[in-house]
Structures are given as structure tokens and as C-alpha cells.
Amino acid sequence: MATITDTTDDTGVRSGNWRAGVLGGIGGALVMGALVLAMNPPTLAVAIPSLYGLAPPPNPGLGMVVHVSHGAVLGVVFAALVGAAAVEEPVRIVGLGIAWGVATWIGLAALLMPLWLGAVGSPASPPFPNFAPPSLLWHVVYGAVLGAVYVATEGV
Q1: Helices (H), the chain
Q2: What distance in Å separates the CA atoms of residue 69 and residue 54, rounded to the nearest whole number?
Q3: pTM for the full model?
Q4: Which one, 56, 71, 77, 149, has least CB within 10 Å?
């Protein structure tokens, strides 16, 4: 006669909801992309697609596809951060989203993007570093929407 014993171990490690991260990242990137188009179209039409040799000529649609793809991937990283930090309160998740938006602005938009665009010879290469205030606004909005959509969809 065999005895089966089920055991579960709580390792204390939590994982975020990657699906909510993807949805939040897509939502945040779409809203941010709309702001970029309204405030500085060449950023979306030339700079972002230039990262991958897809511009010039200017192509805002392709820039939006690249941008939303980046937003989705960064949303998954955000979900991992939410899980690792064991953040459960909705207000704190949205706050973490805003902080994540600021972190992506510093690390990716202000520091990495100018170097990358310079390396590929983009005509849209900004100076290094590029701590542009409108870009900070765009990334804060990305993070706020990311956090809000994450909260709204994490139970799905």
C-alpha cells in the first residue's frame, strides 16, 4: 500500500502577474506614444525606429509598433519588480509604476538611447546625456498608466 504525501513549500518568493505587466506596458506605451506624437512627432517617427535601422524616412506607425513592443517588455520587468517587492496595495503599485517610469527615463531614454542612436548614425541622435523634461513627463505618464492597468488586470 502506497502513501502519497503532498507538500508545498512557501519559499517567500513572489512573482508578479506578467500578463498584467504586458497589458499595463502596452496601455502605458500607447498613451505615452500619443503624447509623444502630440508634443514631438520626430521622436516617434525617426528616433525610435532608427534604433533598429527602420528610419529614415520618418515612419510614425512603425515607431509606435517598436515603442509599444518596448513598453510591453518593460511591463513584464515591472511585474517582476512588483512580485519581488511583494507590493499588493493598489496605490503603492501605481506609485511603483511612476517610479519605474522615472527609472526608464533615466536609464533608457536619457542615457542609453542617445548612445545607441549615435552608434547607428541616426539623424535624430540627441546629445548625451539627454535629460529632456518632456521625456520625463512622457515616462511618468507611461508608469502611471502601467501601474493603473496592472492593478485593474492583475486578477485576470
Answers
A1: 18-39, 41-42, 48-50, 60-84, 90-104, 113-119, 133-153
A2: 14
A3: 0.88
A4: 56
